[in-house]
Amino acid sequence: MAPAKGSRKGKKAWRKNINTRQLEEDVAQQQREEQQGTALQTLTDTNLFFVDKAGDEKTASAVSKGLSRKRKQLAQPLRCELIAGVHKPAGSVSAQSGPKARGKLVLPHQRKQPQVQLQQKHQGKGVYKLPASSTFDLWDEQPDTTDPRLDRYNNIPGAINGTADQPSKRRKQAVKLATKAVVVDAAGCSYNPDIEHHQEALSQAVAAEMQKVYKHDMQPRSVPRFVDYQPETDELALLQVDAEPDSDEDGVRLHTAAAPAAAFSTRIKQTKRDQASRMRHRLQEVEERTRRALKTQRRDIDNLRQLQLQVQAEEAVRAELRAAKAAARAEKATHQPPRLGKVKFEAEPVQVLLSEEVTGSLRKLKPTATLTRDRFKSLQRRGMIEPRVAVRGKKKPRRVSYTQGERADKAEVGMEEIRAIQNKRKGQ
Amino acid sequence: MGKKLKRGQAGNTVQYMTRTQAMRKLQVKLSVFRRLCILKGIHPREPKKKSQGQNKTYYHTKDISFLAHDPLLSKFRDQWSFEKKIKKARAKKNRSLADSLAKRRPTYRIDHLVKERYPAFVDALRDLDDPLTMTHLFASLPAESSHDIPAKVVANAKRLSMEFQAYVVRAHALRKVFVSVKGFYYQADIQGQAVTWLVPHNLTQVLPADVDYRVMLTFLEFYQTLLQFVNYKLYHSLSVHYPPVLDSKLEEAAAGLASIMHDIAQHKPHKQPLQAELTDKQTDTQADTAVLDLQALPAAVQARLQDSQAAAGAASREEDDEELGEIDSGGDDSDGDALSLQEEAAATAAGSDSVAGVSPQVEAGSRAIVAVDPASRQASPAAEPSHAVVDSIAGGALRVQDDDDAGICERLFKGLVFFLGREVPREQLLFVVRAFGGVVAWQGEGSPLPESDDSITHQIVDRPSQGHKFLSRHYVQPQWVFDSANFRVLAQPELYAVGVVPPPHLSPFVQNEEEGYVPDYLQTMLKLQGQAQAARKRAAGTMDQYTFIAEDAETTDQAGSLPALQPVSAEELYKNELAQEMQAGSEDEELADTQQTAAPAAVPDLDPEATVMMTRKQRGLYNAMQRGLSKKRQRAESLQAKAKKLKQPS
To answer: Smallest CA–CA separation between A57 and chain B, in Å?
Structure first.
């Protein structure tokens, strides 16, 4: 704020009227502070601040409660962690906190493994580097007597799929297929087979191949897009052109010309009277039908027993059919996997040597080289993956390399040829 | 009247959802959904009524909610968002950031899924067929960049398959081998579970374009984790540490299985320092050559080794001497592998779990059984000369109880030393021979024995002619090993000689009784089997002439009482049954013209009263069964008749 306006008499009159009150106050304040020791600028940090150790009891307790709850949550293992025994309760914080929880499960896998030390002892030059955690006993068969909550496989009952004796009810298990993972080839597929066995295997292979051929033959033929046709050589067309009209054909033509008129005339126009009589007839028919139905009903009531027998027989036939269908389905399931997707499963052909390939020597054997496909098909056969058509990867676009002046050179060569031909002609 | 039901409120409509619906619910893309399903073991289902259309893939709603609760889902989401970060950094040409982010990609583990899907170890063993086959297949695949098959995965598959094979060899668990066009089918008996798997032939596999390799790799990912745990468990069941230490030199020589076996065989702590000493000496003397085993060492080193053994203890030296006498007639060298294999067998025979600290007394005792073997072989020809040939059919399993299949398998090739030519599949033969208790050497680097060694009893050759032949050994084709192993007898080596077309390789997986048709060669093999059984019985009968220190009192009692209790051998019984069936068959042929429908009557044990008491349905089923049986029988008969006809003109 500017000083109050005073008199301006004389050149430097304003100097006389300077308000020094603020200044004086400030100085006084400073003096006071110095005397009291409250001059903040001059004080060090340690004098200014202090660590509040007392704190707000209310807030602190709430925070700690929340923390402990969180800690507890972290300390509580997930199911999967319990299964594998890999749970580590949250870090060092929980380790520091108070006495050990009495109810905590210590699974056998969480204990220290003596074998790990053994392995490290033998770690020399030739040892494969393994992840240390893979070399421990996953199935510690020693039943844990210390914790009654574990079953004899040291698992938490019901935590996993179920044990060998007691499958769990948690998840409906898929129907296990009877097919084995590794199906051993038939005796005829041996590298040096017995003749009869070999013939049998061969016949199977041939049958499978012929099935394919027959199936292909049975399929409807598609209409050809182009047909080799020349009107000049088509006999039928030529005959039609050359044929002269004779008298018989004229008659036929006349008859056909009259036919539409006849068709027109056959349609009889119904009168109202006709319609009424028709209605009457219809009503009568309905009445008669109900009467007949009543009559049969009365008769049926009389021979109810016979009817019952009839129904039973019918049901028996139906049950038989149903059983046959089920049996067929079961039979089909033995050699055909479930239909899991769009594409049907196709089995690999039988891998058998041809008769001329059987030499009896292991050295000269020509083995199957596509075992990866065999394994892949095995996975499909067991219903582990759905059969599908292989997706062809995107074709990489052809890389065209360009060299300076190449195109022109090529054109020049072409022109040379043309010129040579022209010259030749001129020479002739 | 009940409440009126609305459409789409219950039943299949609610229980099942299509794949697209499921993906929307989980908020993942198709590739992630597929991975998740495969890892969790959730497969599509076929509902009775396909409410959303016929051409769709359906999942059970509860399956999907099961997926939704797996932490893997959030892990996959994390990965996805992380990928976006990397992509962004790349797009901004911030290479350092992109690289550092790529290094910190979030990872996941699927251990808990293994436990979840296989609550008990037995469950995992039961389901081991597919993992093993897949792992063996990928072990033989090229790590191709066009199909994104990482080299790491292939290497891991190789390791896991080798480890498993090594276990099978070490536990002598192999039971059946069948060589088909596809590959080698093996069946092993692992803790009471029959595990079957397929190993492809040693030829490059073609990678067809219609196979989804990402799906296969996801399966493989789970299977490898499973197999890792299974291997761990199996190794520890033998008290062998896991993972096995590989012999780096053998591995360099591409000896595969042998390199792992080298480690597993010598798991006993008191043998390890010895072995270390051995390798030290080896490196001193022969630094440039890649000779690995004790067998191939020069005589001076062997002498030094024997000195060291003598220093180690008198007891152990005695053991070694005994073994030397057992293994080879020459007695000039002591095979390290053979030695350890013998120990294994001896340890298992003693009934101890071959714990690391087996006391030497027990071992010495158990070894006494092995020591008796040659003595008995010498003694038996003196009594009955014809028995010597018969005894040799039974192989090393002469002293085993007849009903002890595991024991027979363990010792069948015991005392036999095989040499593999370079043209035969080494890995497979090594596996089979060693699983059945034999010793193997091969042409090439890392072999424990040279080709000229005297101790070799069988040389496996697959070529039209063999130039130089040692008279002391049999030259056989690889099939001899497989057939012998399948029938648990040593087949006639003359039939498998060099350049000869061997007899047919029959599948051990076929149930011959059910099949009806018995090939000629099967009959001869069964005859041999019967002879071997008889030899075993005879050996068991003469057993009490010798003193066995470690043999259980129980088993000897059984051996003594067996011949008395069962005078009729299984072979005779089988012959009788066969004869009966043949009779029934001939009767059938005679009656066939007159009685077409008399099939059930031809069954000898048909009880007329039983059929009377049956309902019509049951009778129908029974008749159908009988008809099927008779058809099978007729087929077998016709085949046999055909075979007879073929034989007659020749």
So the answer is: 39
Q: Say whether B26 sits in a helix, a strand or coil.
A: helix
Please answer whether residues B30 and A385 qualify as being in contact, where contact means their C-beta atoms are separated by less than 8 angstroms.
Answer: no
Residues 501-530 of B with CB under 8 A from A: 501-502, 504-507, 509-510, 517, 519, 521
The answer to whether the beta carbons of residues B422 and B437 sit under 8 Å apart is: no
Per-residue pLDDT tens digits for B428-474: 999 999 999 999 999 888 888 899 999 999 999 999 988 889 999 99
The backbone torsions φ and ψ at residue B287, rounded to the nearest 5 degrees and listed phi first, read -75, -35
**Whole-angstrom distance, CA of residue B642 vs CA of residue B299:** 61
Q: How far does chain B reach from its first CA to its final CA, in angstroms?
A: 85
Q: For B271-281, what is each residue's pLDDT tens digit?
A: 333 333 333 33
Q: How many CB atoms lie within 10 A of CB B571?
A: 17
Residue A5 is classified by DSSP as P
- CA distances (Å), B102 to each of A374, B29, B32, B85, B107, in order? 36, 21, 19, 9, 11
Question: Is 0.90 surpassed by the pTM of this model?
Answer: no
Cβ-based contacts of A186 with chain B (< 8 Å): 507, 510
Contact between residue B454 and residue B490 where contact means Cβ atoms under 8 Å apart: no
Looking up tokens 């005796």 gives A187
Q: Give A83's contacts in chain B (Cβ within 8 Å).
A: 112, 115-116
Per-residue pLDDT tens over the stretch A385-404: 999 887 776 777 888 888 89
- C-alpha distances in Å from residue A364, one per residue of A361, B216, B423, B463: 5, 30, 10, 10
Kindly compute the dihedral angle of the four CA atoms of residues B363, B365, B366, B369, in this order, to the nearest 10 degrees.
Answer: 140
Q: Given the cut 0.85, state whether the ipTM is greater than it.
A: no
What is the phi/psi pair of residue A162, to 5°?
A: 120, 160
Whether the CB-CB separation of A369 and A414 falls below 8 Å is answered with no
Contacts of B149 in chain A (CB under 8 A): none
The C-alpha angle with vertex B636 and arms to B633 and B638, in degrees rounded to 5, equals 110
Which of B143-147, B179-183, B551-555 shows the lowest mean pLDDT across its residues? B551-555
Higher pLDDT, A222 or B249: A222
Q: Which residue has the tokens 């409410």?
A: B51
Q: Is A203 on the interface with B (CB under 8 A)?
A: no
Q: Which two tokens stand for residue A348?
A: 């690999």
Distance of residue B636 Cα from the nearest chain A Cα, in angstroms = 10
String of b and e for B40-63 (b: at least 16 CB within 10 Å)? bbbbbbbbeebbbeeebbbbbbeb
Q: Could A141 and B121 be called an inter-chain contact, meaning their C-beta atoms sit closer than 8 Å?
A: yes
Cβ neighbourhood burial of B66 (10 Å; 0-12, 13-18, 19+): middle
* B219 part of contact set with chain A, CB < 8 Å: yes
